[in-house]
Specification:
This protein is mainly α. It is built from four helices and three strands, in the order αβββααα.
Length: 119
């Protein structure tokens, strides 16, 4: 089973749609999730462990109960979801993605909604 197949199976098992490209991408970078429509927007073809992690992270935003969480807590929960699912599937979590995720959460915790000023 390919990484793309694993991602699609995860989407299907959670009742989530995959949008591979639309007008909403410009402001959202590499990927994002819309909880209300249960849609993951991800342009990647999901061919590497890194892109699988990114896709699972976005799924995590939809399946996690994020009510009452601060923004950095939502990102932390989504990262944990992605890493846990990859471990459950027997797929090594890319160190670079785990590292980037921790750094992003730390910056977000420090800067909150002004994270774009943190760069």
């Amino acid at each position: 089973m390919s990484l793309r197949d694993i991602f699609v199976a995860e989407l299907d098992s959670n009742g989530i749609a995959w949008c591979r490209g639309c007008e909403r991408y410009g402001a959202h970078g590499r990927g994002f999730a819309v909880k209300e429509t249960r849609t993951v927007h991800l342009e990647s073809q999901v061919a590497t462990r890194r892109t699988l992690h990114r896709g699972l992270h976005e799924i995590g935003h939809i399946v996690n109960d994020e009510a009452g969480m601060r923004r950095f807590e939502k990102e932390l929960a989504a990262n944990r979801f992605a890493e846990r699912r990859m471990r459950e599937l027997g797929i090594p979590v890319p160190r670079s993605e785990a590292s980037k995720g921790r750094a992003y959460v730390a910056r977000m915790k420090r800067w909150g909604n002004n994270i774009s000023k943190a760069r």
